[in-house]
Amino acid sequence: DSFNVNRNQHSKNWNTDIAVEALSKDPFFARTPTALEEAKMKVKDNLNDGLDYVGDKHVMAAEKKLPLVCHRADAPFFANQKEAVLSAARSGYVIVSAFISPQEREIRDALMEAKLPVIEIKDNGFSQRYKPSGKAFYACAESYLVQITCWKYAYTRESKISRERCLVMNELARIICKQPDGWWKTWKI
Rounded to an integer, what distance in angstroms lies between the CA atom of residue 87 and that of residue 189? Predict the structure, then answer.
């Protein structure tokens, strides 16, 4: 079951309007209405009808989840953020993130090495024969990794993630967790 793609899962907390609203909160898009409208159209064209995921449904259903988003403004406090995230995961929280930045990927690697539960938001949809690869394959098999996506599948060799995709995926992490991404600033280690 860990490798079945569960398609078009619907949530009352996640829909196209919420995804598009995430763009409006961004300072760059707030200052440039034309770019905002173009980004909204790109997002609408590429969003899936629901959420698709691969991995253990119990990880998806966990009550305690926390988002991980590393902001440039918080870079001087990265060591504190990393320790808070690892501490929370060791305390039973599932960490949810798109793992876009190098700092987020560093934390993901530490979580995976410790076999702590993670929900990874992917920047592309899942093909018909999708299976996680590399370390993610074994993490799904051992039920501590779930991969989720809100995007339609598109075959591409492009490795750069657009600003609008980053914003939407970070918003999805907040929605899944029902928590702001600054929670770590008050976490007691």
Answer: 6
Q: Are 88 and 117 contacting, i.e. CB atoms less than 8 angstroms apart? A: no
CA nearest to 177, candidates 102, 46, 55, 67: 67
Q: Full-prediction pTM beyond 0.70?
A: yes
Q: Mind spelling out the 3-state secondary structure of 82-120? A: HHHHHHHHHCCCEEEECCCCHHHHHHHHHHHHCCCCEEE
Q: Is residue 104 within 8 Å of residue 169, measured between CB atoms?
A: no
pLDDT tens sequence across 117-150: 999 999 999 999 999 999 999 999 999 999 999 9
Residues 82, 84, 85, 90: is their CA dihedral positive or negative? positive
